[in-house]
Known about the structure:
Elements: H1 3-30, H2 35-51, H3 53-64, H4 69-78, H5 81-87, E1 96-98, E2 103-109, E3 112-116, H6 122-135, E4 139-143, H7 149-165, E5 173-175, H8 181-189, E6 195-198, H9 202-209, E7 215-217, E8 223-227, H10 233-245, E9 255-261, H11 262-274, E10 277-279, H12 282-292, H13 307-313, E11 324-328, E12 346-352, H14 355-368, E13 372-378, H15 382-391, E14 394-399, H16 403-406, E15 440-446, H17 496-516
Parallel strand pairs: 3-4, 3-6, 4-5, 6-7, 8-9, 8-13, 9-12, 10-11, 11-12, 13-14
Antiparallel strand pairs: 1-2, 2-15
Helix pairs in contact: 1-8, 1-17, 2-6, 2-7, 3-4, 3-7, 4-6, 6-7, 10-11, 14-15
Amino acid sequence: MSELAVVGEAAGVPRARQMLERARWASRAFATYDRASVLRIAEAVTRVAEDKAQHYAEWAVRETGFGVVEHKVVKNRLCSRGILDTYRDHDYVSPRVDADRKMVELPRPAGVVLALTPSTNPVSTVYFKILLALLTRNAIVISPHPFAKESCSDAARLLGEAAVAAGAPDGVVQVVEEPSIPLIDALMTDERTDVILATGGVPVVRAAYSSGNPAIGVGPGNVPVLVDATADLKRAAEKLVSSKAFDNSLLCTNESVLIVEEAVADRFLREMERQGAYVLKDEERDRVRDTLFPEGRFDTTLVGKDASVIAAKAGVRVPGRTRILVAPFDLAVGEEPLAHEKLCPVLGVVRVPDARRGIRAAVAILRIGGAGHSAVIHSNDPRTVMDYAAAVHVLRVTVNEGGSTGSAGFGTHLAPSMTIGTGFVGRSSLGENLEPKHLVNLTRVAYSVDPSEVLPAYDGMVPRGTSAPLEAVPPYPVASNLSAPTTDTDTSGGGTSELREELRRLIIEELNTIIRG
């Protein structure tokens, strides 16, 4: 590493402190906003995000080389207008009065959210996490994956500008434009970071959990899908192929291994072929396996590539309409590479004599990877569905729907999300799909159960200092020669002069770092 690179990385540490101080100021100001103001800001940001869905889908595919533009457009819209429409009627701002339980609940935002976003679902995850933060009156710092930093940085800046134009505090949305290890480490370990949302690979999630700050991380998937003899085979084939082909399998909820009951296996595979699947012959499967897993490790250069690209690299000729490759194998064991997670349109398939054996095979697939994540089943037998759900160690089982979008809450009534919690079994602090409620704590004001204690009238009351701002909050920090009024939101007792002194100190520290280099 060059001396210049070392200096640049070292200089990122004071930059992280500046970003977090600005975010803390914004979060304290934002915490005083009422619900109408929050919704106005969220609506303004959603309009901009929705309008740019196509633009950023094209940019993300161009930058990363992953996925399908039209499918990323769908994800961008689901994670903008779809998220706002889902949570518009939820109130994460106003006090809640429960007269029967003699309790008042005051929503308390987390504060400063650090959001790590992946390269596989880049802009849609940026959209999703920014809207969750805004709906809950949190400030957010986006740290994009280096492979997608240009599209994600531009999207985050645009949404941040829209939020401020609609009245949000300056700095409520920030983005790390040049990620580096020291900078990200400084952001994760600084006490001003109130919670980390880690979406990405296992090392990223582990780093978040070891940061010393609260973190919500998720584990990898390896989704089994069971098709039993009672399933509607034509419908199941259409759902499965469409799900596996969606954005070339970049969602971690995509199906990885098909387990099909022997009695219907041939018919089902023919139905899948009608939907654009290509079932590999044994020698073709071996070539695809060796291409995908050279020396037993997944070739990450094939993440999100078209089925035809993967087939061509393996020397396999497929029809032009091929959407996914289906690779039969015999045993669901860890030594079989095709039994592992595959973020590309290649679906492993094993045959089983009956549904009971199919359930055991699904359990075996999840022992290899994907514990706590997701599973799919196509069946019209409620007993089989119940037994399957009880046996597989996952926290969401999608029935008669594609896993890619269904387990992510699009096409089912699960919470729509780009962050899938895997719970205790998956070593995650989150046991469900991430949604706004996870970025808010409640201060509960609880009265005595003694009948003589009567709950006073709290209806319509809001905490002192909460109000709808008439105009945008002054930019941070406020220059000393301006007389614009400011909201006293610094609960530590300091004011803007202290913040300016901190900025001066950080700037001097950064200059000294460069000089010493």
